[in-house]
Amino acid sequence: MRLREPLSFTTLLLVPALALAALACVAVSARQLPLAAAATGTLLLLPVVFRLWTRTWYRGLVLRGVGVFLLGMHVPLLLGGALAYSRIGCGEGGCPELYLLGVLVSPIVGTLSSVVYWLVGRPPV
């Protein structure tokens, strides 16, 4: 009989992080920007508090987290631009709502990228 290993804190924190990101995305699409900002701020505080209480910080972690934030933030921008450009009739800036949605969602995706990196990131060897 095989015993199950207990869930780690990282696994337990990924579920609320994904739920907060989903809440922020839904709030953006519903044009509830204060709720989206609150959910994004809470999403950013989640790994910081977790790291301060449970793990040690190592040199370069914050800088790498900011880099992952910037990389993750550009994914919705590029995706929104590509979708707006690929639609028929949207070539000359006729469909800015897709790109605007990418702009509004990009801080949420960037924050989620940093959260995932800070929760599961390992120190460099």
UniProtKB/TrEMBL annotation:
The keyword Transmembrane applies. Keywords: Membrane, Transmembrane, Transmembrane helix. The chain crosses the membrane at residues 34-54, 61-86, 98-120. This is Lipoprotein.
